[in-house]
Amino acid sequence: MEPNTDTHRLNPLASKNLDTSIILLVIGTGLLITWLSFTHRSSWAAHWPDYNHMVSNLPDPSAWLRWVLGDISEVAFYKHEFASIGLLAGAYLAYWANRTGKAWQGFAISYGSGLWPWLVTGSLLGLLLSNLLWGWTVTANSWQPTFAAFVSLPAAMVLMFGGGWKVTINGAIMGAVLVTPLCLLIVNYACNPLGLPVVIGNVSGMAVASVLAFLLCRYVPNLVKSAPTSQPKESSAPEVEPAKSKTTDYGIIWSLRRVLADFSEAPFFGNELASIGLLVGVLLAYTLNPMSPAYGSGLLPQLIGAQALTSALGVVIWRRQWRRLGWYPTYVPLVSVVPAAVLTYGGSWQVITSSALLGALIAPPLACALAKRVPGDMHPYIGNVLSMAISTLLIIPFIGLLIAG
User: Could you tell me the residue ranges of all domains in the chain?
Assistant: First the structure.
């Protein structure tokens, strides 16, 4: 469903203020992280504190800052402030390039909707509210899915109903009061006792909470619809200018770009520049301390390699669907089956190849089939996250049997 963007574009002054605010925010956040971390320099030996240093120092302010920022890149299983800052910086660059019609913008960010400022605002507000409400559940020995609102309902509501403060704020609130607690319940009372990968609880909570939220919007439409005005609105900013369109050849270059864009698809960015920022940030973190990103597992290279492989296999296997539909959820195993397998069973070639292949074969078509059955007044991403849960539940035990044999 194409989002309503006509009445919620930013005027030139607002766009300039947004540019300045985002640049200052990124710079300020980076300086704050550096200052807070270096005040504790004597307590860690490497060039940057590791994951265990962060969780063991909660609720110290510097540890909480790292945790909350890490939530932004948690969906890719990187959980690191550098990856998060890189993702946001790359996404902003992609939005600016899209807005000004640059040829190098890559795939239009947020599907060319022009809604990225509202989308990322709602996601960040939902993330902050989630941590304020549920951060007390996090301890040194108890990981919790406080990131869930950043990659689910708030962004989906903006894409469904358009921009504006009403949709953005209500989406953020529902993300914090519906998505996060449901994820907490499923993770702690189903996944952990049963020994299931926690990603199953995360995405199941996103799906159930999103259905409840969209049902609420169906019966209380004032949550997302503004009262009609008697005077017509003046045209505000110029339309977002897409890059000059070319006939897509779906060849090698397109395939490589698509694999790269899949790394930032889960937060609804789907852009190469955003993905480059994410990967550069997490690789910098790994260089400074291999035990800092990816939950201190030390498996970041194997994780990224497996994620790239499953996306590449999906793009090749389902190329005909990409041609026919224009978009296909080849990113689904990249943020579910594959990282769950690598973090559960290690980074051996058997685990990497089997999870990448099985994820690419099963997860995207299942997601597509489920998304087609989602009601029209709900965002089809619900089908994608359900596919993540089902695929992970099916594939991870099979890989365990495979490597055991």
Answer: 1-226+241-296, 299-405
